[in-house]
Amino acid sequence: MSTAAITTAKEVFDLLRDDLVAIEQEFERLSTSDVDSITEIAGYLREGGGKRIRPALLLLAAKALGYTGSSSIRLGAVVEMVHTATLVHDDIIDVAHIRRGRPSANTQWGNSKCVLAGDWLYMQAFRVALEERNFRILDLLISLTQQMVEGELLQMERLGSALNEQEYYELIYRKTACLFRVSMQLGCVLGGASLQVEELLGDYGRNLGLAFQIVDDVLDLTASEGVLGKPTASDLREGKATLAVVHALQHGNVAERADIVAVIEDQSFNRISHERILTILQRNGSLDYAMLAAFAHAEAARKNLSILPDSEFKRALLWVTDYVVAREK
User: Fold this and answer.
1) What is the pLDDT of residues 82-110, one digit of tens each?
2) DSSP states along 224-246
3) Which DSSP letter does residue 104 get?
4) Inter-residue contact 167 to 158 (CB < 8 Å)
5) Where are the domains of the chain?
6) Cα(45)–Cα(105) distance, rounded to whole angstroms?
7) Cβ contacts of 22 within 8 Å, gap of 6 or more
């Protein structure tokens, strides 16, 4: 990331510093249970860090609309609890052993305890949200959870088979972008926004989330394990076709398509190497195609902000779109 981008990142963090610290403290408080294993697993997941981009979006949306209350802290913790619950369930489903450079929780406590800890985090998130006594907030969170579960099931159904672009976008919306969208919408609810404003800022979250996941998928193919904090090309190794792979399947020659299909069906690089797949993707311009799609969604997200008056919070939201497409992990 450029020096200018790092400087801007510091400015954005400084803008939200106190609130993000408060969200972290609230997350810790709310993820403490009388059952020791729940507290231990939740603490381990929380301490694994993360970008905290979703609660940051909620804060920025609320503040851009003039909100100054404390509910943004509670709902920021709710968003992060939901996100954390999905991560622990993802690792179990994907049989993952590494998460953010550390052993995944399921390798430490086993699948059974981690499934239940994830369920507990979901229920705790809803319990806290219920305290807001706002049906719109509950409606958003219930719809979000349903879509994320549907996304996991759709992905499981399509493992080991190729997707088309429409299917890919539907999948990443449910798995990733819908949480970005709802984070923005929750900020809008707190800020008393009209449904029109909520829709536009929700679209910002959707476009940002799509860009985020597309970049994530490209990095999975191209970045080193040391940078990613997990094995490279883990998506392909699990039989998942991401956008660059979908593009190469549409534009590669017969032999190239056969090699890609072999990896997806085998869910391994036993017959075809990772290096061979990268060569195919580069020859067909597939990695560039995916990045251009990410840039297009980031630009669409910026346009969604045109309804907001100028403020330091709007400028921070504009910067987030640059960060998402420029990040290296």
Assistant:
1) 999 998 998 898 888 888 778 899 999 99
2) -HHHHTS-TTHHHHTT---HHHH
3) -
4) yes
5) 3-326
6) 7
7) 73
